[in-house]
Structure formats: C-alpha cells, structure tokens
Write a structure and sequence with these properties.
Length: 167
C-alpha cells in the first residue's frame, strides 16, 4: 500500500470511529472507546487529535474504574449489556408488531437485521470492557490511586501551562 493510500485509509477509519464513538455516547455502545480509537488513528496526521488522545484515554479508564467500584454497578452494567443483546436478538427475529402497537407496522423495530447485529456486537464489547475493568480495577485501590495521580498530574500540567501563557 502506498503512503497516500495508507493515509487515506487510516484517516477514513479514524473519522469513522470518531463519529461512531460520538454517536455511541448517546446510543448503545462503547462511546469513549470509539472516540479514543478514532483519535488515536487521527493523531498520526493531526496535532489537534494527538493533544486529545491522552485526556480521552484517561477519562475512559476513569469511567472503567468507577463502573466496577461496587457490586450494584457491576450487576447493573452486566444487566444492561444482556438487555441490549436481548433487544438485538428481538431485532433479528423481528416478530410481527403486537396488537397494542399504535403506529404503522413499518415503524415496528425499524432498521432490520443490522440494527440487531450492532446491538449484540455492542453488548459483547460492553461485557468484554466490564471484564477488563473488573480485572484491572476491582479490589485494587493501588491501580485506582495510580490512575487518579495520572489524571491529577495531567490536569496540573495543563493548568500550569495555561497560567504560564497569561501575562
């Protein structure tokens, strides 16, 4: 692959992941993971993306650590992923619209099979991320504290850089 072709593929993939990550913040899916992956690819070409990779990575890890702090959070996250997968199966099976459905049948489970496939894929990714977060952070206060120090150091460096620019 030539340099130009590689650049086009990486940029296209980076922008796609970034847009899907932003959408996944509002829709079911791992939004910060998509944003991080997109920024990581775009950071090879753009300085603005390179400056944003690390803060997004730290925020994603902070969310991961907070998500496995307590058993109710872990259970709720796992149940959410299972419900998402169940809805994905429902979309794939696409049963006829029920009698109580007030809208046209075309509005019953719109999107078709690919909506279901992406929901199941998002559920699998969510469960994998929960397992990763559990193994990395649950019951390991030293790992959480190390992450907090990294976030604080990054914040302090950013704050001192801003104050140094003021005259």
């Amino acid at each position: 692959m030539t340099g130009a072709a590689k650049r086009i593929v990486l940029e296209s993939l980076g922008w796609t992941l970034l847009v899907l990550g932003v959408a996944a913040i509002f829709l079911p899916g791992p939004g910060l993971l998509g944003i991080f992956a997109g920024l990581a690819l775009l950071s090879q070409q753009y300085d603005w993306a390179e400056r944003r990779v690390e803060p997004v990575r730290l925020r994603a890890l902070q969310g991961a650590a907070e998500g496995v702090e307590t058993w109710p959070r872990i259970i709720a996250s796992c149940l959410g992923a299972v419900v998402l997968a169940a809805f994905g199966v429902l979309w794939i099976v696409k049963p006829p619209s029920p009698d109580w459905w007030p809208l046209s049948d075309t509005w019953w489970l719109p999107g078709g099979i690919w909506t279901g496939v992406t929901q199941i894929g998002s559920a699998i990714i969510a469960l994998a991320l929960i397992a990763y977060s559990y193994r990395r952070f649950h019951g390991k206060p030293e790992a959480v504290e190390e992450l907090r120090h990294e976030i604080d150091d990054r914040h302090d460096a950013r704050t001192s850089g801003r104050q140094g620019n003021r005259v």
